[in-house]
Amino acid sequence: MDLALPPRVTDRAFARLAEIAEMTGETKALRVAVEGGGCSGFQYDIRLDDPVADDLVLEKDGQRVLVDQVSLPFLSNAVIDFTDELIGARFVIENPNAASSCGCGTSFSM
Predict the structure, then answer these.
(1) Both ends of the chain: CA-CA distance in Å?
(2) Does the first or last residue of the chain, that is N or C, have fewer Cβ atoms within 10 Å of its Cβ?
(3) What DSSP character marks residue 94?
(4) In angstroms, rounded to a whole number, what is the distance separating the alpha carbons of residues 72 and 90?
(5) Pick the residue with more confidence: 40 or 92?
(6) % of the chain surpassing 70 pLDDT
(7) Closest Cα to residue 64, out of 54, 53, 74, 55?
């Protein structure tokens, strides 16, 4: 049985957050949440937000990524990354808990 570890955030994702803060002039945290819905049963909700009391806060160089307590089990051992490809630049989740995912990249099943 794998140990449930918190998600890991790549240096690339933290660097992109720093770029966003520089462009907007405000330092917001990146919230990564899991919600019911999407084409495969669950979907990721990734947005800039402010922390609340029971959030897990992953921090590096003043940049923060937030995960709420409800989403945490779904993101155990996941990797939060930033990718810049032909189809666009976006934050992505590499989630070992997802049994399958959808072509959109934001929906998955367990």
Answers:
(1) 16
(2) N
(3) E
(4) 21
(5) 92
(6) 85
(7) 55
* 3-state SS, residue 101: strand
At residue 64, what is the residue type?
R
Q: What is the set of domains in the chain, with CATH numbers? A: 8-98 (2.60.300.12)
> The tokens of 53 are what?
């009391």
Is 9 in contact with 61 (CB distance < 8 Å)? no
Cα separation of 28 and 66, whole Å?
A: 10
The residue type of 51 is P
Higher pLDDT, 88 or 83: 83
Token pair listed for 101: 């995912």
Q: Residue 48 in contact with residue 20, Cβ under 8 Å?
A: yes
Tell me the pLDDT tens digit for each residue of 60-74: 999 999 999 999 999
